[in-house]
Write a structure and sequence with these properties.
The protein is an alpha+beta fold. Helix content is about 55%, strand content about 5%. The termini are far apart.
């Protein structure tokens, strides 16, 4: 027995040693310190524990060396320190005393979680101040790990066997410290369970409110401070069911009263007095539904508690829950009101009534504004349905009346309502404007844009007009009508506003008559912010309505007027004018660019740039970017215009790369133009040579014609001058008067060696077939020859000309010999000339005697003496149609080539 007991004792001792060894390994850590070079230095290895720091009542981390028990680290845990848990085994923080980063690297993840939970508990207690005897004490390092999952409590009777809360202590003044400890120290699971127990206990909040009233009557500040911490802990539980209890009409005022006793605030707050005496619920129109009124009150109180009472204490999760409650309540209120048809009709009836006082109407407009604003809480489908219903009830008529008011607050409310409608469905407002006549809502918006209602409202008017005229969201018939109304009635007015606000100068062109001209008298000194918004709207119109605004700019002097902004001393207005010109040029519209050049519209921009000097600002960058855009887009017309007009004043800025590149682009254009002009000189020379050749040819044929005239006169002495006509195969008549064929000479061609075949020669190709032309007047023929000569210079190369001339020479020689052979065989006819026949498709020609053929040979010899001139002349004429003729009294020689 003794031996068995000894063995059991040894086994028990071994188990205890194993537990101790496991606890030791769980707490084993390495201490690291961040050096100046960003490297972590190992300070040693030891065991960590959370204990009271010697000489202080504060808890802290203590690390003792595992070898010699030397202290490696002592760190006081405070609520201001930010601790970080990394990779489940590292806890790091910044030590303000050492002014560096420290880190503990645990051997086991369970040990890291153990210490981390203790640090979180201590910080939570510190955040809710010191609770005296309820403060959590240190946990011994040797305490088992299971203890980390169990909250320290003075009484475990409220927990079940598995550590879960069975019930809460009774709500009594003596139990408040225990309830507060349970709420503050519990983990997430425990907090969820505590919230369930509180909501299930119907007497919890009534008893808590009763205790608060008793302590307030007795002026027991210690207990009131504890109730404040308890209520704050209940809110931080972030439970929707608890929120419903807290913000109910039954308990809300007492809950707010408990929150007045903040121990950190020396003087008590008077939240209840403010809510009772100063907060007044105004009903612009009576709301009959009790539930709607109750939710409106609740929503306001939630917002007051969130924004005024507890703004420093609420965490992100609780804040999000409160915002969600407000959003839900708003949606519920709007949904109930919009479904009440009688309420909506009564609202608009009162707003239209002429008997309503100014103050009442103001309240109605503000109510309508809040009603439309809160409608954003509804789903999108319900929002669209609501806005359509309001549009049908005549909300835009109400807004038109509101925009004519002098009260800035209700005008601002009216513009906000319009923006809400435009964001939901712009076509609702567009349809109303299209159907309007006379002083339309669009005109009120334009006038409001140039009226000094305040800087924010200027932007609102600009945004409304942008959305209305956004071409990308327009559809149907509204698109063209809205734009047409704006351009016909209001664009000139906005341009004149800019022109009248700048220093007067002579504008080069006459202003066209417009609807807005007579309103210029109303335009007084305009704020610079208004002018900037007008310029922004005009830039928007240039981008979205390029055709309409181009027509307006080309007809009127709108661009010149807008560029008068460059004379303003406000630099942002000068930059706006430069941006406007940049928008105009970016359209790359030829008509607008020519308009800019014609009226020297870049001069104000360049002058402003030169006046700015070497100051590096938005104006400087804007003009350089404008010039860079012109250069990169290869706008040649503008490049030449800028350099030739303004280079004298831009030369001093040539040190800038943009100016240098701009000048280089101009030089490239000039060099390209010179290259093209020099390339055209040879063409001019060729044309001159061709005209010379034509003159020589004309003189040559004139001389030939004179000889023919004299020869014909001699022949007339021996035979009567008779003419006969022969019919061609196609039935056309050909004049049979003597003709002289002009021949082209080639050195390597020998006409004598040419022997025609015994049979009829083959029909030449179409290119070689001589053209049959009846006699016409010489002047007409000369024009035809000159026309064909100019065309053939560009079409035929020299080699083609030589080939064609060779063919023509061969055909001509063949025709001449064929004619001689027929003359020998035919009987002589001294009194008449032979008829002209066409043999084998080639025009045959008979002379009155052999002198005719001799003259042809002489002409051939003459062409040989002219050298290469003949070749050039032939090359300038078509191989198919090259004819020179001259009217004479007896004969009409012509040349077929």
């Amino acid at each position: 027995m003794a031996e068995q007991e000894r063995r059991e004792a040894e086994a028990a001792g071994g188990d205890a040693a194993a537990v101790a060894a496991h606890a030791s390994s769980m707490q084993r850590v390495k201490v690291y310190r961040l050096a100046d070079g960003g490297k972590w230095d190992d300070q040693g290895t030891g065991h960590v524990s959370i204990e009271y720091i010697e000489g202080s009542k504060e808890l802290g981390l203590t690390v003792l060396d595992e070898e010699d028990n030397e202290t490696l680290l002592i760190h006081n845990i405070t609520s201001d320190d930010i601790y970080r848990k990394q990779e489940e085994t590292i806890i790091s923080w910044r030590d303000h005393e050492a002014a560096t980063e420290l880190a503990l690297s645990f051997q086991e993840a369970t040990g890291c979680s153990y210490i981390w939970d203790h640090i979180c508990d201590i910080q939570r207690n510190l955040q809710f101040s010191n609770l005296g005897a309820l403060e959590v004490g240190p946990r011994q390092a040797s305490e088992p790990l299971e203890a980390s999952r169990v909250l320290h409590s003075n009484d475990d009777s409220f927990r079940s066997a598995n550590g879960e809360f069975r019930e809460l202590p009774p709500v009594e003044l003596s139990n408040l410290p225990l309830i507060l400890k349970i709420i503050l120290e519990g983990g997430i699971t425990d907090q969820i369970r505590v919230a369930e127990l509180i909501t299930q206990d119907r007497d919890f909040f009534p008893k808590l409110v009763e205790i608060f009233r008793m302590c307030e009557d007795l002026e027991n500040l210690d207990d009131l401070h504890m109730i404040f911490k308890l209520v704050k802990g209940l809110i931080l539980l972030n439970n929707p069911a608890i929120f419903d209890k807290i913000f109910s009409d039954e308990f809300i005022l007492d809950i707010i009263g408990a929150l007045e006793y903040d121990p950190e605030v020396p003087r008590g707050q008077k939240h209840r007095a403010f809510l009772k005496d100063h907060v007044v619920f105004k009903e612009a129109i009576p709301i009959k539904s009790v539930s709607v009124v109750s939710k409106i009150h609740q929503t306001y109180r939630i917002g007051y508690l969130k924004d005024v009472i507890l703004p420093r204490i609420l965490d992100d999760a609780t804040l999000a829950s409160l915002n969600n409650m407000i959003h839900t309540n708003n949606a519920s209120v709007i949904s109930l009101l919009k479904d009440d048809v009688g309420f909506i009709r009564e609202l608009f009836a009162r707003m239209r009534s002429p008997d309503v006082s100014t103050e009442s109407k103001r309240e109605l407009v503000l109510f309508l504004h809040e009603f439309c604003t809160l409608s954003k809480s509804l789903p999108l489908v319900q929002q669209l349905r609501l806005f359509r219903d309001l549009s049908g009830e005549g909300v835009f008529e109400i807004i038109s009346d509101v925009l004519q008011s002098q009260d800035r607050k209700i005008v601002s409310a009216g513009t906000d309502i319009l923006i809400l409608f435009l964001n939901q469905d712009p076509n609702l407002l567009r349809s109303y404007i299209v159907q309007q006549e006379g002083n339309s809502l669009l005109g009120l918006l334009v006038k409001g844009m140039v009226t000094d209602f305040g800087e924010e409202m200027h932007c609102q008017f600009l945004e409304i007009l942008r959305i209305l005229m956004d071409s990308f969201t327009m559809s149907g018939a509204h698109r063209d009508v809205i734009i047409e109304i704006f351009y016909e009635r209001h664009l000139d007015y906005l341009v004149d506003v800019i022109a009248s606000s700048c220093s007067p100068r002579n504008i080069p062109r006459i202003t066209s008559t417009s609807v807005g001209v007579d309103r210029n008298a109303e335009v007084h000194r305009i704020r610079p912010e208004i002018l900037l918004n007008v310029c922004e709207l005009l830039c928007f119109c240039v981008v979205h309505h390029p055709y309409r605004i181009k027509c307006n700019f080309l007809i009127n002097n709108a661009i010149e007027k807008i560029l008068t902004l460059t004379r303003r001393r406000e630099k942002f207005l000068v930059v706006a004018a430069v941006r406007f010109m940049r928008t105009i040029i970016s359209r790359n519209d030829e008509h607008l660019i020519r308009h800019v050049v014609k009226f020297n519209l870049l001069k104000p921009v360049i002058d402003a740039f030169v006046k700015n000097g070497d100051r590096y600002n938005m104006l400087h960058s804007g003009v350089l970017e404008l010039l860079e855009y012109i250069r990169k887009e290869n706008l040649k017309y503008l490049v030449i215009y800028v350099v030739e007009s303004f280079w004298d004043i831009l030369a001093k800025f040539e040190r800038f790369g943009s100016i240098q590149a701009f000048k280089l682009k101009y030089q490239q254009y000039m060099e390209s133009a010179e290259t093209r002009s020099s390339a055209s000189v040879p063409d001019m020379r060729k044309k001159a040579e061709q005209r010379g050749l034509e003159k020589e040819e004309e003189d040559y044929f004139n001389e030939d014609s004179d000889e023919e005239d004299s020869g014909s006169g001699r022949r007339a002495k021996h035979a009567p001058n008779q003419h006969s006509k022969a019919k061609e195969a196609n039935g056309s008549e050909v004049d049979d008067r003597p003709k002289s064929a002009g021949l082209v000479d080639y050195d390597d061609d020998d006409d004598d060696d040419f022997n025609p075949p015994p049979k009829e020669p083959d029909r030449p190709s179409e290119d070689d077939e001589p053209l049959k032309i009846s006699a016409v007047r010489r002047k007409i023929v000369k024009k035809v020859v000159r026309k064909h000569a100019d065309l053939e210079v560009c079409k035929r190369q020299k080699i083609e000309t030589r080939i064609s001339c060779a063919k023509i020479d061969a055909v001509t020689s063949m025709v001449s010999k064929q004619t001689d052979l027929q003359n020998k065989n035919a009987p002589p006819s001294p009194t008449s000339s032979t008829t002209s026949t066409e043999t084998n498709g080639v025009l045959g020609e008979h002379g009155t005697n052999s002198d005719e053929h001799q003259r042809s040979q002489e002409n051939t010899e003459t062409s040989r003496q002219t050298g290469g001139d003949c070749i050039k002349d032939v090359g300038s004429m078509s191989s198919e149609k090259a004819v020179n003729t001259k009217n004479t009294s007896d004969s009409e020689p012509y040349s077929v080539r």
